[in-house]
Amino acid sequence: MSLPKHAQQYLANQFKYAHLNAFVSLAEPSKLASYANLKIERHDVKDKPIAIKDNICTTDLKTTASSGILKDFTSPYDATVVKLLRDAGAVVCGKTNMDEFGMGSHSTHSNSGAVKMQRCATEEERSAGGSSGGSALAVASAQCWAALGTDTGGSVRLPAAYTGVVGFKPSYGLLSRWGVIAYANSLDTVGILGKDVEDVRAVFDKLNAYDPQDPTSLPPSTRARLQNKKKAFFRIGIPLDYNISTLQPAVRQAWTRTLKELYESGHSLHPVHLPATQHALSAYYILAPAEASSNLAKYDGVRYGSRAEGIDGTPESVLFAKTRGQGFGLEAQRRILLGTFTLSAQAMDNYFIQAQKIRRLVQNDFNRVFTTVNPLVDDMPKSDEDENTVDVIVCPTAPTLAPSLTSVKEQDPISTYMNDVFTVPASLAGLPSISVPVRIARDDLAAEQPLEETVGIQVIGQYGDDDLVLAAADVISRVESMSQA
Questions:
Q1: Is 131 a residue of the active site?
Q2: Which residue of 9, 91, 252, 388 has the lowest C-beta tally within 10 Å?
Q3: Which sites are catalytic (predicted)?
Q4: Is 53 a catalytic residue?
Q5: Hey, is 239 helix, strand or coil?
Q6: What value, to the nearest 5°, has the Cα angle with vertex 85 and ends 82 and 91?
């Protein structure tokens, strides 16, 4: 079957940009015949090529979570989100590279090698963000129309910010996690990456459904209480606690300019304080590894995963250690050890319980500043006239522009974790948040024309206000387009 030009271009880009390592596996071109019906102008998933992060189960392609211990695993079933996409007529075009089991901020901790971002051939290889860096880069380089990722502490939004695409983390529990390889159960959320907000919204609408197979899926009774607010003008919160000293000037300038343009468009700006957020990152890196160490305990080569070879009589404890050593990368081993310690009897009260208390304080901070009530916490509506509350919060997605892979290799783990400082609070509270690209043109003598740097601007909303967050993101995108005209 002859494919239309724009459908051929997706396939051509998968080969053209293979050196960027966005994919770990690709569907056979012969299976993509439905591209022939693709209409590029429609915001619709039907016949569109959508990439799937490698920790989301698919029957036709291996699901390895970019880990050596799952290098031979093919799922006997599709994850619910994949099934819903297929039912809607979408085409699964491949599985994307990622940090092993979602543990990383730069998509460098992968059994398939690092994801590499280059905006031009002469540019130094840069981070595509993590852990959904492969999904973000696949969209940015037009190797697919949209992609699914997973977001535990910013793993969709951070790559979106670095690569210049839109990355959306819905409210926790709206999208099914059934068939998603778990990192941290209480935080993991399936996210969506696309070129623009409307593409992301189109995918979200197909996936936003209750799944009885997923015990964390929001039940219909609670979904019925979620409000679908429509706003012509937004009360926008500016979190003063996010104006940190390590914020790069380019990021601060883009944030300030975006707020100025929103104000000039008729939206009101209101400073808000979120004091508990300064402790959110520390709490996250206690809670997430603790859950991960429990989730990954089953990969012992007997129940799950590839088993190391041994001679007859080798003690089981030795085989277990060898299996884990060969199967897991260094970052995964580091976080498993951290989590195992956190859950130990001597550390439980001092670390894990205290981190859970901080998590509740973070949630309370957000509940206090939003006009809409959290339907999981409070049934009493607030007044829209309350001058101390806001509809959404607008802040940077990441404190820096995308760093070079060379500098990433030289970073210590703590410095790497700081990339998540603006994304983790919304994850701890389970809130919807989205990263929208704001362009910065800079002259580069090595390029024929100015490169387009991107800064991710993040919109955070109250739990269940996903439509409102998407609407606010669309406003930012339109304001940005007008400023570039």
A1: yes
A2: 388
A3: 53 (charge relay system), 131 (charge relay system), 155 (acyl-ester intermediate)
A4: yes
A5: strand
A6: 95
Rounded Cα gap, residues 22 and 107, in angstroms: 10
C-alpha 390/C-alpha 435 separation (Å) is 19
Q: Which two tokens stand for residue 151?
A: 């977001």
User: What per-residue confidence (pLDDT) applies to 443?
Assistant: 43
Choice among 55-59, 312-316, 383-387 with the minimum mean pLDDT: 312-316
The token pair at 233 is 């003008």
- Calculated CA dihedral for residues 333, 337, 339, 345, nearest 10 degrees: 160
Q: Which of 105, 131, 217, 477 is catalytic?
A: 131
Per-residue pLDDT tens for 267-307?
999 999 999 998 999 999 999 988 988 888 777 655 555 55
The secondary structure element, H or E, covering residue 189 is: strand 189-194
Which structure tokens are listed for 130? 């993590």
Which of 52, 48, 60, 59 minimizes the C-alpha distance to 90?
48
Task: Name the token pair of 368.
Answer: 């206090």
Task: Say yes or no to pLDDT of 325 above 60.
Answer: no
Q: How far is 26 from 150, CA to CA, in rounded Å?
A: 19
Chain CA centroid to CA 326, Å: 27
Locus of tokens 């029957």: 59
Domain at 1-270+395-484, CATH class: alpha beta
Q: Using the predicted structure, report yes or no on whether residue 65 has a pLDDT greater than 60.
A: yes
Q: How far is the C-alpha of 59 from the C-alpha of 48, rounded, in Å?
A: 19
pLDDT attached to residue 122: 82
Active site residue 110: no
Distance CA 262, CA 474 (A): 12
Q: Which residues pair with 404 in a beta bridge?
A: 126
Judged against a pLDDT cut of 70, whether residue 263 lies above it is answered with: yes
Single out the residue of 226, 297, 260 nearest to residue 479, CA to CA: 260
Query: DSSP class of residue 126?
Result: B
Q: What distance in Å separates the CA atoms of residue 144 and residue 93, rounded to the nearest whole number?
A: 7
pLDDT at 4: 61
% residues pLDDT > 90 (the chain): 65
Q: What is the pLDDT of residue 313?
A: 53
Rounded Cα gap, residues 166 and 193, in angstroms: 6
Q: Positive or negative, the Cα torsion across 28, 32, 33, 35? A: negative
pTM: 0.91
Instruction: Report cis status (omega within 30 of 0) of the bond before 294.
Output: no
Domain residue ranges in the chain: 1-270+395-484
Beta partners for residue 150, in sequence order: 190
Catalytic residue among 53, 95, 116, 169: 53
Which among 107, 110, 127, 155 is annotated as catalytic? Answer: 155
**Alpha helices, DSSP H only, in 103-207?**
133-140, 157-163, 197-207
